[in-house]
Description:
CATH architecture of the largest domain in chain A: 3-Layer(aba) Sandwich
Number of helices of chain A: 14
Order of helices and strands of chain A: HHHEHEHEHEHEHHEHHEEEHEHEH
Number of domains of chain A: 2
Oligomer: homodimer
Helix content of chain A: 40-55%
Structural class of chain A: alpha/beta
Largest sheet of chain A: 10 strands, mixed
CATH topology of the largest domain in chain A: Rossmann fold
Radius of gyration of chain A: 25 Å
Largest interface: A-B, 77 and 76 residues
Distance between the termini of chain A: 37 Å
Shape of chain A: elongated
CATH class of the largest domain in chain A: Alpha Beta
Number of strands of chain A: 11
Amino acid sequence: MARTPARAGAPGSVSTLALAATVARRFHVEGMTKVEIARQLGVSRFKVARLLSTAVDHGLVRIEIHPPASLDGEMSEELRARFGLRSAFVVVPEEDGVDGGRRAVARFTAGLLEEVVTPEDVVGLAWGRTISVLSAGVRAPLHCRCVQLSGALPRPDVRESAVDVVHRIAEATGSSAVTFYAPLAVPDAATAEGLRSQSGIAEALAEHDSLTRAVVSIGYWAAGESTAYDSLSPADRDALTAAGACAELTGLLFGVDGTALPDLADRVVGVTVEQLRRTPDVIAMASGLGRALGTAAALRSGVVSTLVTHTTHARQVLDLPEPAPRAARRPAARPSRPRRSP
Amino acid sequence: MARTPARAGAPGSVSTLALAATVARRFHVEGMTKVEIARQLGVSRFKVARLLSTAVDHGLVRIEIHPPASLDGEMSEELRARFGLRSAFVVVPEEDGVDGGRRAVARFTAGLLEEVVTPEDVVGLAWGRTISVLSAGVRAPLHCRCVQLSGALPRPDVRESAVDVVHRIAEATGSSAVTFYAPLAVPDAATAEGLRSQSGIAEALAEHDSLTRAVVSIGYWAAGESTAYDSLSPADRDALTAAGACAELTGLLFGVDGTALPDLADRVVGVTVEQLRRTPDVIAMASGLGRALGTAAALRSGVVSTLVTHTTHARQVLDLPEPAPRAARRPAARPSRPRRSP
DNA sequence: CATTGCTCCGCTCATCTGAGCGGGCTACTC
DNA sequence: GAGTAGCCCGCTCAGATGAGCGGAGCAATG
Lengths: 342, 342
């Protein structure tokens, strides 16, 4: 009398797996609750939960997420894991060229904000070309509070000042605007300190302590690749380059390995690294070509929680060699830990 | 300034879908809870739930269940839907031939019982070749109560009587056995009534009112295809054939369309159709060749909740033409109704 | 304007679900 | 054959979840 090697009701037997499969079907596909399934089968709901686990353990259940075609899910996930981000979105631009990428990123971020911002939010807004494009795309009534993150005066290639951008967004979304007039950085720390305590500016800067979100764009420390770089004197630029500046966020500088550089900080009128770090959700936009190093540096700073970029840029960032130095490799997000597990 | 047709944050926009996709990934793949996701994103948990729904609605989430290779998931589902069963298992036999199929079905059912039966269960056991094979395969300590469903005396091709089978299973599983000695059917109703009220039999039959499960095999009304058929006199057989008998379950007869035939019922010593219908889980085993009509008839009776069969038989049953007559088509189980839905 | 119908949102409440616990059984060990 | 390690089970309880509700904003309409 030939007998199968595995005992009939043992875990891993055909009956068990078959049962697990049908239970999984009812739960995942038909959407029945575990209690319902348990009643139908005449077993305890715990049994059902365990059958569900064994179904997962034996690979009987496969769940696939297919992001919309205009989003590169694979690279998004790769970026997220590599830099320990909370979210990463790699947009597939519809138009070519640097501007196409920037527009796609800005538009996507606009949609993201419309989706995610609530009236309770205090949203900090940086200044730059991408943000300027973004400001044209937000329409939904968010009724939040929009706060200018740093000083900035108009430049030839960006028609609007930081103040204009904040006001534009606030108006379009029925939000309140908190702005102040100041340059991004001033020649010396004392002047900066003076400006910071100046009435009208101090109140605005105080808001930076209660930010719930911040929208910034990642600048690369090179001519034309960073609003901060372009706003400074040649002497400053060189000094900061020598100090190791690589990435810039709202006037804050970071080295290749992501360490915050203090050199410019005391002369900047705007949000501080600490304030940004305390902000629950920091959304960074990265676009352009040849600035991958800057993006990587900014992401290593740990300040950014959400990244929005486009395919070309994402590819460049991911193709960058992993930095050899520093402490051990970072833990790459967190390994997948399914809830229902022993 | 070209604008995309769909507004940025509108439902169905890229940002919304992208967000829905990442939320879905975190929920389904990483196993995060909705509350966690909501906290991370800075939105309400309801928002997360809705994003999850839109992800499903837009087909961003695909969940596939892969039953073990030794089970034909497709036919199982087809049978289940066609006959409105609660579960159907189509086993892929390892050995060929009629006996191979029967053994596979019996062994699978044995495993199913080990998996599903609890000490609170009162399990009714029919009599037949398949159940006889099954009784050799149940080993796990179920500590339930095993009740004989119908009378039956030994026959040349089945070494054991119904009593033997019940005792064997009870012993192997540490369960109590409730049995009685009687033939399956007697020549007239009065004799049957007498037997039913006889001490020793009456007590056993009383248990049929509190059955929680029943294990039966489906017989086809033809020579050698039904224990009942073979136990009766030629005259009885012909009369019942004329009455439209097609399928048999524990001595209970059904017509092609699934209606219970009263003709033999009053001369049978065993469970009644009503009692079987009240039993929460009726597991029917179907195997063999050329008895598809009987299986279909039995399934149409609505008595069976769980079906176990093998590929060849399942194919034959599914290839049967749908019955044209009777009321409208039956509702085919129930349409998939995912929990999270508007 | 007021009305109506729509959509989107977050709340409340009852139900469902997960984590962890201890009892009972098995199988192995000395 | 007593000990014990491992397992499977169902319970309890806090926390997560779904269904349904009503309010707010918006648009088309009378």
